[in-house]
From TrEMBL:
Name under which the protein is recorded: non-specific serine/threonine protein kinase
Organism: Kribbella antiqua
Residue stretches of biased makeup (Pro residues): 274-301
Region named Disordered: 249-397
InterPro entries recorded: Kinase-like_dom_sf, Prot_kinase_dom, Protein_kinase_ATP_BS, Ser/Thr_kinase_AS
Length: 430
């Protein structure tokens, strides 16, 4: 593969998005053998790192929620992976189509509220709902399938806050009034944002930074009005209650129906990801055959010379009584006779004799002598020193990726302890 796997697990393929906390890549998970979306953390401080760790710790399994299912660290880079959603976001659909039909919007809101019910049940408040964080699976003109994502600024109920009360988290225009004032996380803040998003999907107009929402008429007007009430006590008390209010509006079509397909301009969710670069295919990387080993060809003697390893026999004499004796000049050096046995040489001694003899070794009589600039043929028996090196290289060793991961985990633990200690000290002093 052209790129080394991140932390030995995730092979980053191509960049598909960027955000405030880092970049999002399409990646191949070697453990799951599947494509995933890998979020790589960029420049970070202690607070950002802790928020990143908190986001990857969420394990909310729901068909309308995209939550991390794995993470890894390598040197100063951190990544966590989640399901790869190919249809873009609701913001992409809104930009391509414009205002959406009420029945289509009602289906999106119903799925969003079901996902929020699972999120709130886990004690989490998203705090940054907006069309860009609502992802879509590829469904064409059929019923959309929404998935809530990006829990980077999510707040946990009944836990110490990671920011001061003067710090506002979220996107202007989608923030509830009490959240803008620095209130603690509350599920009803997400319900306010649901109403603001609904108004934008119906009109194509983004809510103002001052909290002013576009005017909406039709069956969803009452749902939007109650969800975006200034007083949190006037909003639905939970996402489940808001879903019942949406169903009572009459805008939600029956399951399995697609009334928006009868309109002249039907919303359609396309595959928004670019084509996979080679050697990647929709089912994974292509299987490349192993390279065919190259067999060294015999060395060709230089013109006008003969090889001592292949003596040339002399032509037979025309006599009928006895064969002619080969001439030394024509036949080349005679084949060596049996030599007296001697002790086997070690690898080092054999290399020294080979170097002294111009690269020829008495242990390998098949090695041919060539011209000075020609390559010598490779002998069939590797030296003993090479065999020992290969055996040593096959022994397992502690990889550098594992050591870096252990160092990073220790650093994160120490940083978290320092941050929590600082928060506790600040709370005691104030």
């Amino acid at each position: 593969m052209p790129v080394e796997a991140f932390a030995g697990r995730y092979r980053l393929i191509d960049l598909i998005g960027t955000g405030g906390m880092g970049s999002v890549w399409r990646a191949w998970d070697l453990r799951r053998s599947a494509y995933v979306a890998a979020k790589v953390l960029g420049q970070h401080d202690a607070a950002t790192l802790l928020r990143f760790v908190r986001e990857q710790s969420l394990r909310i399994e729901h068909p309308h929620v995209v939550a991390p299912h794995g993470w890894a660290a390598d040197d100063d880079k951190v990544v966590f992976a989640m399901d790869l959603v190919r249809g873009g976001s609701v913001a992409t659909l809104l930009g391509d189509h414009g205002p959406l039909p009420p029945s289509y919007v009602a289906v999106l809101l119903d799925q969003l509220l079901h996902g929020l019910s699972a999120v709130h049940a886990a004690g989490v408040v998203h705090r940054d709902l907006k069309p860009a964080n609502l992802l879509l699976d590829v469904t064409g003109t059929g019923r959309p399938h929404l998935r809530l994502s990006d829990f980077g600024v999510a707040g946990l109920l009944d836990e110490p806050r990671m920011t001061r009360h003067s710090t506002v988290l979220g996107t202007p225009g989608y923030i509830a009034p009490e959240q803008l004032a620095g209130a603690d996380p509350d599920p009803r803040q997400d319900l306010y944002t649901v109403g603001a998003v609904a108004a934008e999907l119906l009109t194509g107009e983004r809510p103002g930074a001052d909290g002013k929402l576009p005017h909406v008429d039709g069956p969803l007007a009452d749902f939007i009005h109650r969800s975006t009430a200034t007083d949190p006590s006037h909003r639905p008390e939970s996402a489940h209650t808001a879903a019942r209010l949406l169903a009572a509006s009459g805008a939600l079509p029956p399951p399995g129906t697609t009334p928006w397909t009868t309109t002249p301009d039907t919303p359609e969710v396309f595959d928004q990801l670019p084509p996979l670069p080679p050697p990647w295919t929709p089912t994974g990387p292509t299987t490349q055959p192993p390279p065919t080993p190259r067999t060294p060809s015999p060395a060709t003697p230089a013109p006008g010379t003969t090889s001592p390893a292949t003596p040339t026999p002399a032509a037979p004499a025309p006599s009928t009584t006895a064969p002619a004796t080969p001439s030394p000049a024509a036949a080349g050096p005679a084949a060596p006779g049996p030599a007296a046995p001697r002790p086997a040489a070690s690898g080092g001694e054999r290399h020294e004799r080979e170097a002294a003899g111009g690269g020829r070794s008495s242990q390998h009589p098949r090695a041919a002598t060539t011209a000075p600039n020609d390559l010598q043929t490779i002998t069939s028996s590797p030296p003993a020193s090479r065999q020992h090196s290969a055996t040593t290289a096959d022994q397992p060793a502690l990889g550098p990726n594992r050591r870096r991961l252990l160092v990073w985990v220790a650093t994160v633990s120490l940083t978290g302890a320092i941050a929590l200690l600082g928060t506790a000290t600040w709370l005691l002093l104030t």
